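Hello Y.,

Per our agreement to keep a running log of every chain we model this quarter, I'm adding this entry. I've kept the format consistent with earlier entries: sequence first, then predicted structure.
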Amino acid sequence: MARANYRCEYCQLPAIDYLLRLHVDHIRSLKHEGSSSIENLACCCPDCNANKGTDQGTFLNGPGSFTRFFNPRIDRWSDHFEAFEGALYPKTPIAEATIKILQLNDPDRVIIRQELAIDGRWPVTSLP
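Predicted structure for the entry above:
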């Protein structure tokens, strides 16, 4: 939690603003030969965790165009995502794949981030 600055490492929702406890996500799932080592674990909100499941990426432009998800251990969030008025926008195909499958711009999730912005708690400052 401390390494993630007490927020989901995918959608950046602060833990204090989430009604449920954050989860520990296997970045590379055990099903796909990932480990439970600290380097393969991420702080994750229940929505991101449920949507990600054991997936590692998705196909963006047809079969042969597999794109991996954002990996908080090797990627900088601010290099891949941009936040504006509660919505997240991709700067890269990695972010596009992550936004698509983790449903980061689900209307309810955008509304939560808009409410946080009104209170000055979104976007999160000093993103990794």
